Amino acid sequence: MDARNAAGFTLIEIAIVLVVVGLLVGAVLSGQELIGSGRVRNLADTSAGIRSAYFAFVDRYRRVPGDWNANEAGEALGVAVNGGGNDNGRIDNEAGSEWAEPNALWEQLAKAGFLPGEFAGDAAAPTPSNRRAPLNPFNRVMVLGRTDDYLHAGGPPPVRLNLVLGRGIPADLARELDVKIDDGIPDTGALRLTVSSGATFGDPAEGEAACVRTGGGGTRIYDVGSDSQDCNVTYLY
């Protein structure tokens, strides 16, 4: 056998392989960062769009979407409306019928032309496959309702109208979103982490406890180091 054929790789060949591997790894990491940033922008834009749709509906019809009873909503919108509420001027989520008005809200916003899509409007719990609520970029259900199921610095949180952006958000992207549109702190400002258990709307409105930890001075911070892939945040109205 020729000695040259039996020889291993030269230093130049090894260097070329390492460079190629480095470029491939860099491309993969850059791609992941772009995907993550795109999802953060999607969450920010979706949150802003739903908020605008909600208040535009109230401004035009002088009724709260979802709370408006189905018959009157249908007459005003000129289409058949399946879901509606009790006309008390707010979104209710009473035990046993938590989803009636929140689901009706999505149907009425869509049929009024303020949101894309079609929603069933009935009172069954929404899932990623049953068209009762919009989904976030991680294919998880979003919820709009009045609850106190969010972190709050300085005592028990007040009941507030809030948009739950849905589970499945990695901890680092949850923090990035908070920095982008709010103050970067999980228990103050307009954007908050949700509770990890006991939420009014159950699992869709909860997130992993590992998404937050106590930092210096006793303040709570996003626990990016936990690498949690199932955080959930809510935007307070």
Topology:
Blueprint: H1 3-6, H2 11-61, H3 70-77, H4 100-111, E1 143-147, E2 160-164, H5 171-181, E3 191-193, E4 212-214, E5 220-222, E6 233-236
Antiparallel strand pairs: 1-2, 2-6, 3-6, 4-5
Helix pairs in contact: 2-5
Can I get a quick summary?
36% of the residues lie in helices and 10% in strands.
Query: Main β-sheet: number of strands, strand sense, barrel status?
Result: 4 strands, antiparallel
Strand content: 5-15%
Q: What's the number of extended β-strand segments?
A: 6
Coarse structural class: alpha+beta
Low-confidence stretches: none
Strand order of the largest sheet: 1-2-6-3
Q: Gap between N and C termini, in Å?
A: 78 Å
Gross morphology: globular
Helix share, percent: 25-40%
SSE series: HHHHEEHEEEE
Report on the structure:
It is built from 5 helices and 6 strands; from the N terminus they run H-H-H-H-E-E-H-E-E-E-E. The protein has 237 residues and is an alpha+beta fold. It has a domain at 63-134. A 4-stranded antiparallel sheet has the order 1-2-6-3. Strand 4 and strand 5 (220-222) form a beta hairpin. The model has no long low-confidence stretch (mean pLDDT 91).
Question: Can you give keywords for this protein?
Answer:
237 residues; alpha+beta; 4-stranded antiparallel β-sheet; two-stranded antiparallel sheet; 6 strands; 36% helix; globular
